[in-house]
Design goal:
The protein has 279 residues and is an alpha/beta fold. It contains twelve helices and twelve strands. The strands form two sheets. Strands 2-1-3-5-6-4 form a six-stranded mixed β-sheet. A six-stranded parallel β-sheet has the order 9-8-7-10-11-12, sandwiched between helices. A hairpin with a 2-residue loop joins strand 5 and strand 6. The longest helix has 13 residues. It is globular. The chain starts with 5 loop residues before the first strand and ends with a helix. The structure holds 2'-monophosphoadenosine-5'-diphosphate.
């Protein structure tokens, strides 16, 4: 009998990750005798860990905070999204070579497809934040065909850098311009850590947003961030951060275990219950 396939998630810390719950659910659902294991890897141990993936008996795995950028530099090959975003979250071996992909952008796009169908017709997008997560989100928006993406960040220089990196279709704007920017925004996305449990709320006034606007947050602890609550109160369509987490996991599972899994309401309910239990 073939050995069970083993995949991992490496991060530092990694105890809070919900990915084992997601992949564990799919392994059970498909009756696959595989494993998906948490591995805490300190930053200075990442290169050694990645060099020994095969020897450790793994077929591949996920990379999470704070290793995504370094992993992109350590792989032998990476997909186009990882190259553009400069970060890798999914690893596998091909002919003994370490390959990396970034599935965050694709996961965000799939989450919007599910919760806000037609989002690619939203017109103007405004993205709050200009860090690593923002790079994936802006890439997802350009892949969806959006060509007026406005980036607003506390540190304006980072917004300029990101807009520059994307080129045509993206622009950087000072925070003071946000009210004006919102007045014709069809899709607003928070990629900052504001609104996350333990951080302050994202203090922005949504009043200028048009009634058809969609508001998305990539924060999923809590699931209903103050930003999403304010958007719901105004009757706007909202997209929470859990969809991106669930959808980014699909292609990794398929690579490691050979079955393309589905993001279902049952899976979502399982993760929501876990988040409510221990945020
Ligand atoms: P990630 O990879 O999760 O995006 P990051 O690269 O550290 O993490 O970026 C965090 C983002 O949240 C940045 O846009 C950051 O703004 P700065 O570039 O000005 O640091 C934003 N952010 C974090 N704390 C913030 C705060 N208190 N107010 C506004 N923006 C904040």
């Amino acid at each position: 009998m073939a050995e069970p396939r083993r995949a991992f998630i490496c991060g530092h810390p990694v105890g809070h990750s919900r990915s084992p719950l997601i992949h564990g659910h799919w392994l059970d659902q498909h009756g696959i005798a595989g494993t998906y294991e948490r591995v805490d890897v300190a930053p200075d141990a990442l290169a050694g860990f990645l060099a020994r993936i095969e020897d450790s008996g793994f077929v591949g795995g996920n990379v999470t905070v704070p290793h995504k950028e370094l992993a992109a530099r350590l792989v032998d090959r990476c997909d186009q999204a990882a190259e553009i975003i400069g970060a890798v979250n999914t690893l596998w071996l091909e002919d003994g070579r370490l390959c990396g992909a970034n599935t965050d952008a694709c996961g965000f796009g799939a989450s919007l497809d599910a919760a806000a169908p037609g989002w690619t017709e939203c017109g103007v997008a405004t993205v709050l934040g200009a860090g690593g997560a923002a790079r994936a989100i802006v890439h997802a928006l350009t892949r969806g065909g959006m060509n007026d993406i406005r980036i607003v960040n506390r540190t304006h220089g980072r917004a300029l850098e990101l807009a520059d990196r994307i080129g045509a279709g993206a622009s950087a704007h000072p925070q003071a311009a946000l009210g004006e920017l919102l007045s014709d925004t069809g899709l607003l996305v928070n990629t900052t850590s504001m609104g996350m449990a333990g951080a302050g709320p994202l203090a922005i006034d949504l009043a200028p947003l048009p009634a058809h606007a969609v508001v998305a947050d990539i924060v999923y602890v809590p699931l209903r961030t103050p930003l999403l609550a304010a958007a719901r109160e105004r009757g706007l369509t909202t997209v929470d951060g859990l969809g991106m987490l669930l959808h980014q996991a699909v292609s990794g599972f398929e690579r490691w275990f050979g079955v393309r899994p589905e993001v279902t309401d049952t899976l979502r309910d399982i993760v929501v219950a876990d988040l409510e239990d221990a945020p």
